[in-house]
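Cross-posted from the bioinformatics board.
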Amino acid sequence: MTKRNISLLLALVMVLSLLAGCSKPAEQTPAEQTPAETPAAEAPKYSFGMVTDVGGIGDKSFNDSAWAGIEKAGKELGVEPKLLQSTKQDDYTPNLGSMAQSVDLTLAVGFLFEDAMKTTADQYGDKKFGVIDTVVDKPNVMSITFKEHEGSFLVGLIAGLTTKTNTVGFVGGMDFPTIHKFEVGYIAGVKSVNPNAKVIVNYTGAFDNPDKGKEVALAQHQQGADVIFHASGSCGIGVIQAADEKGFWAIGVDQDQAKESKNNKVLCSMIKRVDTATYTVIQAYVNNTFKGGAANALELGLKDEGVGYSDGGNNVPADVAAVVEKYKAAINDGSITIPSTREELETFKPVEIK
Amino acid sequence: MWNIITILFGSTIRSATPLIFTALGGTLSERSGVINLGLEGMMTVGAFSAVLVSYYTGSPFLGLLGAIATGAFFGWLLAFLSIHFKANQTVVGTAINILASSLTTFLLVEIWGKPGQTDNVNYFTPWGPFNMFTYLAFILVAISYFVLYKTPFGLRIRAVGEHPRAADILGVNVYRVRYTCVIISGILGAIGGAALSIGSISLFKEGMVAGKGFIALAAVIFGKWHPIGAALACLFFGFADAIQTVSMSLGINVPKEFLFALPYILTMMAVSGLVGKSVAPAADGIPYEKGEK
């Protein structure tokens, strides 16, 4: 019987030691990583900081890009921005609060911040906030979203002109309106240059399951798709890997994903300039043009260089790129409006530009 | 139509591959009388160590060996606590699952300097429609069946799982048989994890195992503690997954939520006994004490 007690004790110690192990990184990360003191000599004192979502700095995407914009602004203004990392969703509200206590402008990226931002903005009514990718209707919160459908339209054009099988694919993450903007813009782009092309649409139901992304891409490829655009977070790693193995084209998202492919099978990437968004908020705050509330929410599109496409692997031929430039001009001068919802897509008439 | 069938077939086999390894491990362990609830954790450490070794050596083969070594260690740990110390097998298994997920999360940040996921590493590129793991899985099903039912050692395993005292009296070393089976089950679980991380894709991601270890345990029950039955159960779960992948692109109008839930619904049906009575080995989960009445 003593043996049984010893073993139970051992198991308990094991579990407890784990809990201790878990808490260690959590203790480190919320600590301010760049304790900053604004130089006292400078006349206008600005202070700003960012709270990351669970992805954190180092995600090679969303958070890194947002931080790049903040660092750029910081360098120009001679201010060292502060950074708080969130390790779980429960951190959002406390992290926003402690950031708001120490700086004038607190930035947060990702629609997961929506609720936390509402609460904190009320609590710290005298401070300013910026939120990216969602709209928070508070007078002291500046919201910036993107016209993802415009960027997706451009890569749709490229896909439509590149496909040999007249079949292209779209792999979405979770099935909700933000991702529909990618889907709809992409379909509109494909149909504009290749009205007979078939677009296969799938959702993986997750943003963090590369295995599923690969499986879906393989299934689309077997149905004839030879260009597949993904807007599915890290499921896209699987999409790109499937492209590498089977030799079809993948289209990246958010930032240039050419280097994710071993065989240079990333045709191009749809770019979302989160860095521009954070930079814009800081500019507005510095220039006293900061405007909160849903009515003043900014939506960055092609014109503002908030979205676009990039060709890090040099895979887009010059004639295709030329067509894309023509459409870009047409979107910028307002002669084409890109649909952003599935309803709008139904009434969208593909415009042919010679 | 033919095209759809080949897509479904390929997707089913690929989804089932990691499950088959793990379910074989579970079958073997339970046949010898030890419930391996730590399979989920063993898959996690296997997936992680495979990527880790492949990252440093550039060789997925060495990565697989790394996974095997780690799996053997975690199998030994479970065996040591539950056979030697006769600890509650459910508690030890759960502890191993927690240990595995926190350990890999911690090491991920330590080694790659960022949370979430590792960089891409070299992996087993497919031979034909499947990668090496799939072929290995089916070979191991045959081997497991042969060992369990056609060899003296298999007879001992089954005897120890059904009636350890009788086996002991006849001169079978109960502890040794159980140790062997649990360690092999740890190895198989880890290979199942490696089949995910350096087979299906080429990186380790936090939470990538996502309950597959438990689905494999359900397959053990579904398959009535028989290696071929367990493998068929895995294929069935893989099929549920494949339907979900394929149906959307075929425009079949089934609610997505239902399809996402399908593998789990089937698992629940399996464990609730809707598929006929499954009888566990009589001594499954009961620690053996020599000389106890």
